[in-house]
Structures are given as C-alpha cells and as structure tokens.
Amino acid sequence: MMMMTTACQSQVRRIPSESIRAGSLCSIRKNEQGVYLLQECRYEDAIECFGTSLRTLNKVLSSHTLDGEPQTVQQGSDDQTMGTADCNDVSQDIEMAPLVCDEKENSVFETAAGSQHDGSGRGCTRVHVSSMDRQQQVTDPMPRALLGHIDLIYKKPISMFKFLKMPFFSYNNVVEMSISVMFNFALAHHLFAVSGQSENPDKVVDQAVALYELIHSLQVQERIEISLEYSMGTICNLGHIHQLRGDLDKASKCFQHMLSIFCFLQSQSSLEVGQRYSSDGTHDDQRDNRFSSSSLCLKKILESDVLFQSVSHLLLKTGAAAAA
Questions:
Q1: What is the CA 7 to chain-centroid distance, rounded?
Q2: Which one is predicted more confidently, 273 or 267?
Q3: Which residues, 6 or more positions from 128, have their beta carbon under 8 angstroms from its beta carbon?
C-alpha cells in the first residue's frame, strides 16, 4: 500500500504550499485582467498584466521541485486540464516540425518577459528552449503595410477562469497555465505592434515572434500539449508576420504546416462510421472518442475565419494540382 501511494505521488506531484497556490491564483487573475484589456484594445496595459502573470508562474515553477531537481512534465497524466484540452489527444498524432533555423537557447522569461534568471539552474529544463536568432529579427524590419491588418491575425485570447476553482495545482497544470499566458502575451505584443499605438513596432513585433516561436518550440522539444486550435493560431500568426515582412519562405513553412494539420483532421473526421468498431464487431470507445475529437477540432478551425482563410488558398492549389 505504501509503495502504491509513493508511486502515485511521484506520477502527479502536487503543490501543497498555500503561498504557491496564492501565487497561482494571482497569476490567473492577472491573466483574466489582461484578456479584458486586450479585448478593449488597451494593448500596453494588457502586456503589463500578462508579463506579471508569466513572471509569477515562473516563481511557482521554480518552487515546484522534487529532491532538489526540477520536475519534467508528465505525459498523459489525468490532471492535464487545460481549458481547451478537447483536441489534445488528437495533437499527439500530429508531428510537430520546427519552423525556424539558426536557433539559440534563451529563457522565456529572459527573452520575452524580461525577468532575471535566478541562477540556481532549476528553471533550465523548463524554460530554456530554442527561439529565433535575435540578430535575424533585428535585420527584418516590419513594413508599414503590417499596420492595420488586424483581421488577418488569430486574436482569440485564452481565458483561465476554470483554474480558479481548482483545489490544488499539479506541476503540469502550472506549465499549461504558463503556455496559455505566453500565447496571450505574444498576441498582445502582436496586436500592439500593428495597432499604430507603439512608438517602436519593430521591437514589439520581434517580441511577439520570439514568444510564438517559443510556444512552438516547447511543443516540439518538451512535448508540452496545448489546444490544437491555439497551436494553429500560433503558427498562423507567425506566418502573418513573416509574410508581411516579406519573408515568404518562413511564411510558407508556417502555412504548409497548418495545411498538414488541417488535412490530418479532415482525413480522421471523414473515416467511415464502421471503422469505429473493432474487428469483432464491438464498439471501440477509445477510437470513437478519437474521431469525435478530430471532428471537434476540424469544426473549430472551420468556424475560425482566420485559420481557415490561412489554408484555403493552399487547399485550392492542392485541388487544382490533383485535377490536373
């Protein structure tokens, strides 16, 4: 009995400290405040809120250790409860490919949120991931044409209201919250850059690119799951920036990657109903759930004008090539 209890504790490590719980709740409230400000087009204030939320979550992650070593994210644990987790099981079947080259390792909080690393090394395995070469970003100025193209951006922020009712937070919960805030942080920079409100839009959009690529890198290198809808939103917004900067090669990689995800979901959701059953004729609940998730993800993408329009021109090209 003791061995079983120990095994369960090692699989899903809880954060018992009330001070850590208070920090997590504070970061959630800051995120929700940022979401409201973002929707009110108060981008600079939203950036401040998301930055505060992200730094607070970084402190929570740094405090969450086991025998003095940083924890790794547990794959497939029962408490991966991100608000849009409906599509997470489907995303496990999709190969996430790197979108950029010439990468350097940077801390998300040093690179994007501006906070200092504590020097203990405890955060290295969690927040050090690849992001775009800073020098390359500086040499790719944002054209004035980028201003005003709000309709081409996937601009749906992530709300974390559901986490407010949680009695405790696992390590995975805090990591998922961090990724959610990171997406909102990137989106706020992106919208601020194109709104005309920023005095230095080139610098602001560089920060958005670094954050978007960081989110994608976390998925690729650390296998951290986020909703497939927001994963596509991340890639869509990267493609939007690269395209309007004139970097058509990087933009093409983004949109082609989105197309591969779309085609995968389309093929999964269009499978015959009979294939939901096992070879002996019995109903396969696990397979049925997988198909339902695929259909749900596809439905969300089709309902998003921005996501669908980003791949529709590629779908037309693919269809024309097949017809020829």
A1: 30
A2: 267
A3: 105, 106, 107
